Amino acid sequence: MANILWHDRKRHLGLPISFTKYSMSEDRLFVETGLLNLTQNEVRLYRILDLQLKRSIGQRIFGVGSIIVSSSDKSLGTFEIKNIKHSANVKEMLSVQVEQQREEKRVYSRENMLDDVDDADMRM
Hints:
Blueprint: E1 4-9, E2 20-25, E3 28-33, E4 39-44, E5 48-54, H1 57-62, E6 64-71, E7 78-85, H2 87-105, H3 110-123
Antiparallel strand pairs: 1-2, 2-3, 3-4, 5-6, 6-7
C-alpha cells in the first residue's frame, strides 16, 4: 500500500460523520465513498491542473473548507474535496505534491507550453 501523507473525511457541522473519505499518497489522491457498496476513485497527482480553496461563512464557523480540484482524469474530472479540517494547509500540501510529481514525471501543462511559445515569438 502507498505511504499515506494525509487523510480526512467529509464533515457535517465540523464532525466526521460521513461515509466519504479522502487520502493522499506521494503520487495519488484517493476519494472513497459508500458504506455497504464502496467506490474508490484515484487521480494521479501529475494529472491535477488547478486547485481552488472555498470557505463559506458556515464552513469558517465550523473550521472546515472545501478544495475544488480540476484534473485531466477521465473518471473524476473536476471534483470537490468537501468540508475538511485545515483546508488551506491541505491545499498547499497538495499543490506542493502536484508540482513534485509533475517535475518527477516531466509533465508540463499546455498552458506553460503556450506561454513559452508566445514569449519566443515576441523576442523575434
